[in-house]
UniProtKB/TrEMBL annotation, chain A:
Gene3D superfamilies: 3.30.420.40, Carbamoyltransferase, C-terminal domain. Pfam families: Carbam_trans_C, Carbam_trans_N. Belongs to the NodU/CmcH family. This is Decarbamoylnovobiocin carbamoyltransferase. It is an enzyme of class 2 (transferase). PANTHER family: NODULATION PROTEIN U (PTHR34847). The lineage of its organism: Bacteria, Pseudomonadati, Myxococcota, Polyangia, Nannocystales. It comes from Enhygromyxa salina.
UniProtKB/TrEMBL annotation, chain B:
Keywords: Membrane, Transmembrane, Transmembrane helix. It comes from Enhygromyxa salina. This is Uncharacterized protein. The keyword Transmembrane applies. It comes from the Bacteria. InterPro entries: DUF5989. The chain crosses the membrane at residues 37-68. It holds the Pfam family DUF5989.
UniProtKB/TrEMBL annotation, chain C:
This is Uncharacterized protein. SUPFAM superfamilies: Ferritin-like (SSF47240). Gene3D superfamilies: 1.20.1260.10. GO terms for molecular function: oxidoreductase activity. Coiled coil: none annotated. It comes from the Bacteria.
Length: 572, 69, 230
């Protein structure tokens, strides 16, 4: 029986996760505390917060585990720098400074930070941690595990077979061939920030025509998909071997046209932006085809009826939906923090298993962060002279506000693990009117016009609004379902251009506070359905603490905020 | 919500010892039979490490040196 | 006349000489405001006093607004100057937090913020006068608007500092302490700036000397394609 702290850091999305006696107790992304979006720094604040929440001292830990092998990473970086001489001259001094000045000492830093003997601080391979973070918290006894991201130490794609508490590596595709880096390069070409704009590319895809004007043929030069499920990038078009920021080269601009200037307003009715949407749609189609090939290979190697996905590419909810439909598996699971943050969880599980702990119970809820301090929220709200009051039934109070077409910031329970707001730190509103979407965009999110908002629906009612059933991904918003055309009256604000919705099914175990709210809505004669988007402004991490929430209320024009049983309504 | 922890620093000697052990492990990594052929990369690592260490120290005196010349 | 004012007056024609330089400078201000916002949000979370937490939150809200205002004007100027697409001014405004509240403690944090705001007022007044003399009304009005908030920030941080300190003398000691600390930090930053350049040049020499290793690596580690068994 062990206390194990898992850590991911140094690239993007740093996080800490704490397992006690094999059970996941708390997991926090560093960005929620530092307030720096996708903060890659060593997540000591997040780790301290995990320990404080569980009442565990650093010295009492049985192991601290890092999600990557630093020397293997250094080796790959050096081999790549040397192999691509002289194009890597710009990258060389910076990469060496970052590796030698910081990254290779990470295990020493962790030992010192938590007062641990160095022998208690260990590491596992990046993709092994990803695979563990998916299979071991799924409900599956037997699963094929597919890990797809930019790159770990050497691999960019790996297949695994999970059986009970065992995880066996099967095969891999190595850097520089990488689906994640293909996606990153096109994200940059479309004028979005890499590691942040990937969701925008996915949203844009619905507005485009896949393969239009010979785009599919042009994409065949960027990536070749083989019959055995593997793939190969046309490396001449990319620059990720020599440019850590841009990822694509002049040949790609010659092939697809000039990159889109960042920050320019979108006009999808115009020919120019329609071309960018067509490219996004073709990319989405190619990624889905590639993932289907990989999934079929995984099925052939394992014979398993279940599939687990992990790595940044597994956050592509459209692709996940297609895998669920066409991948040949009975069930598909994607853990809510499938990106690098999830590596912390996988690392902790691997060490706990080695120390003799049992496999964790299946993850039912992503509410793994910290709760808010209600008394503090009350005191600070009063100091800010906000009209704060207490209510006996916060779910009914929130439901009444939403039924009255108010936009409500909902801060209840422990904050979420992963990039999705699932009701604990959400902006909630009526899902019916399209105008609500425009209002949220104008007042708060300032998103590109093509990005969708997601619905949250009571789990048993899903079939009344969507073509499909709840599955292992819907509680975490990692897949999409088609919205029912005959229910467009109830889904105007949450149906995307292609008729899909990234729906969240809400159960008492997954998101109890949001469940109460939806039940209250239904009790009041309304659809048990809300628009659910993350509680953050543009470029900000999702709100974590009561101070963050109040800061959000000061800055953004939501109509009301619920902080547990406190209600703050903005005067009309 | 938690407070960032205040951590007692380890003694310079212990930290130096830890760094030396990690450096040794890094050398062994590149001398492993599976990647023995990459051992010359250790020379690059050595140069880069020494340069980093020297220029890290330079940060304390550089403006002074710059002012002199 | 303080050193800050003298420097600002002397450097005005250089700093604001073109739309491109002005865009750079205002982008820098936007980053500074964003970094300050992060520090204030952290302070709001960590201070034991709800009153001060509320004050820090209001201040953080102002800093967010200032960052947006500076960023917007920087991008307008960058467009006028035709700055390249890869220029930092087009990137989202993202700064790092120095976690000053944790590093300095609340008393010195307040002293630090007060000193920073007071200096900003001095600088901005010089800039406003310069812009008005140059007929750059838009830039003058941007800074004048922000100056109103800066005065409020300088006042409240001073008041809180003297309230929190055991005595007036202790508050003044904190102000002196952070001025010394800032001077040392500026020295180190300048040192780091130079050291980084020395390192870059030296590393490029190492890179050139290591060129033959490129051939070795290509021979020893050819690129792999397709599946590789575990």
């Amino acid at each position: 029986m062990a206390k194990v702290l898992g850590i991911s850091a140094h690239y993007h999305d740093a996080a800490a996760a704490l397992l006690v006696d094999g059970e996941l107790v708390v997991a926090i992304q560093q960005e929620r505390l530092s307030r720096i979006k996708n903060d890659p720094g060593l997540p000591l604040d997040a780790a301290d917060a995990c320990l404080a929440y569980a009442g565990v001292r650093g010295e009492a830990l049985d192991a601290v585990v890092f999600y990557e092998r630093p020397f293997d990473k250094l080796e790959r970086v050096m081999v790549n720098l040397m192999r691509n001489l002289p194009r890597t001259w710009r990258q060389f001094p910076r990469a060496m400074a970052s590796q030698l000045g910081d990254k290779i000492w990470v295990l020493d830093q962790l030992a010192e930070a938590f007062g641990q003997p160095r022998a208690n601080v260990r590491c596992f391979a990046h993709h092994q941690c990803h695979a563990a973070s998916a299979h071991f918290v799924s409900r599956f006894e037997d699963s094929a595990v597919l890990v797809v991201d930019g790159v770990g130490e050497h691999s960019s794609t790996t297949l695994w077979h999970g059986q009970g508490a065992q995880l066996r590596a099967l095969c891999s595709i190595e850097f520089p061939h990488s689906l994640g880096l293909l996606y990153a390069a096109l994200t940059a070409w479309l004028g979005f920030a890499v590691n942040e704009g990937e969701y925008k590319v996915m949203g844009l895809a619905a507005w485009g025509r896949p393969g239009h004007a010979g785009l599919r043929e042009r994409f065949e030069r960027l990536i070749r998909l083989h019959d055995d499920g593997s793939y190969e990038l046309g490396l001449d078009y990319f620059a990720h071997m020599s440019d850590a920021e841009l990822g694509f080269g002049p040949k790609l601009e010659a092939l697809l046209g000039p990159r889109r200037p960042p920050g320019l307003a979108w006009a999808l009715e115009g020919e120019r932006d329609q071309h960018y949407a067509d490219v996004a749609a073709t990319l989405q189609q190619v990624i889905e085809d590639a993932l289907l090939g990989l999934a079929r290979k995984a099925k052939a190697l394992t014979g398993s009826p279940n599939l687990c996905l992990a790595g940044g590419v597994a956050l592509n909810s459209l692709a996940n939906a297609r895998l669920a439909r066409e991948g040949g598996f009975e069930a598909v699971f994607v853990q809510p923090a499938a990106g690098d943050a999830g590596g912390a969880l996988g690392a902790a599980i691997l060490a706990a298993l080695e120390l003799g702990d049992p496999r964790p119970t299946p993850m039912l809820s992503a509410a793994l962060g910290l709760p808010v301090d209600i008394e503090r929220a009350w005191a600070v709200a009063r100091e800010l002279e906000l009209p704060v009051r207490r209510v006996d039934d916060p779910a009914s109070a929130a439901a009444e506000l939403i039924a009255a077409d108010k936009i409500v910031a909902h801060v209840r329970g422990r904050f979420e693990w992963g990039p999705r707001a699932l009701g604990q730190r959400s902006i909630l509103a009526s899902a019916a009117a399209r105008e609500t979407r425009e209002r949220i965009n104008r007042l708060i999110k300032q998103r590109e016009p093509f990005r969708p908002f997601a619905p949250a629906v009571l789990e048993p009612r899903i079939g009344e609004y969507f073509d499909g059933q709840a599955n292992d991904m819907t509680p975490f918003m990692t897949t999409v379902l088609p919205a029912r055309a005959d229910r467009s009256d109830a889904l105007g604000a949450v149906t995307h251009e292609d008729g899909s919705s990234r729906v969240q099914t809400v159960s008492p175990a997954g998101a109890p506070e949001l469940h109460e709210l939806l039940v209250a809505l239904e009790r009041g004669g309304h659809a048990p359905l809300v628009l659910n988007t993350s509680l953050n402004g543009p470029g900000e991490p999702i709100v974590a603490s009561s101070e963050d929430a109040l800061g959000f209320f000061l800055r953004h024009a939501v109509d009301a905020m619920m902080i547990e049983d406190l209600v703050i309504e903005r005067p009309a | 919500m938690s407070t960032p922890g205040k951590r007692p620093k380890r003694s310079l000697l212990r930290r130096l010892g830890a760094r030396l052990r990690t450096s040794g492990a890094l050398v062994l990594h590149f001398l492993h039979p599976a990647r023995f052929v990459l051992a010359p990369l250790l020379i690059v690592l050595l140069f880069a490490g020494v340069l980093l260490w020297l220029t890290g120290g330079l940060a304390y005196v550089a403006p002074f040196v710059y002012a002199l010349f | 006349m303080s050193l800050t004012v003298a420097l600002a007056r002397m450097l005005n024609p250089l700093v604001w000489r073109s739309p491109a330089r002005s865009a750079d400078k205002l982008h820098g201000f936007a980053l500074a405001e964003h970094g300050s916002m992060l520090d204030l949000r952290l302070a709001a979370r960590l201070t034991p006093s709800p009153t001060r937490a509320a004050a820090y939150l209001r201040h953080a809200d102002d800093e967010t607004r200032h960052a947006q205002m500076f960023g917007k004007r920087a991008r307008q100027l960058a467009r006028e100057a035709g700055l390249a697409r890869g220029h930092a001014v087009w990137e989202p405004i993202r700064a790092d937090s120095e976690q000053l509240f944790v590093g300095l403690g609340e008393l010195d944090f307040l002293a630090f913020v007060h000193v920073g705001e007071a200096r900003a007022i001095e600088q901005f007044l010089v800039y406003v006068a310069y812009f008005q003399a140059q007929g750059r009304e838009r830039d003058a009005s941007l800074l004048t608007t922000i100056l109103v908030d800066e005065h409020r920030h300088a006042d409240y941080t001073r008041a809180l500092l003297f309230e929190l300190a055991d005595s007036e003398a202790a508050a003044r000691r904190a102000l002196r302490r952070v001025r010394r600390w800032e001077a040392w930090r500026t020295w180190l930053r300048a040192g780091r700036f130079l050291a980084e350049r020395v390192y870059m040049v030296a590393m490029l020499l190492v890179y050139l000397l290591a060129a033959p290793l490129g051939l070795l690596v290509r021979w020893a580690r050819p690129l792999t394609r397709g599946w590789r068994d575990a």
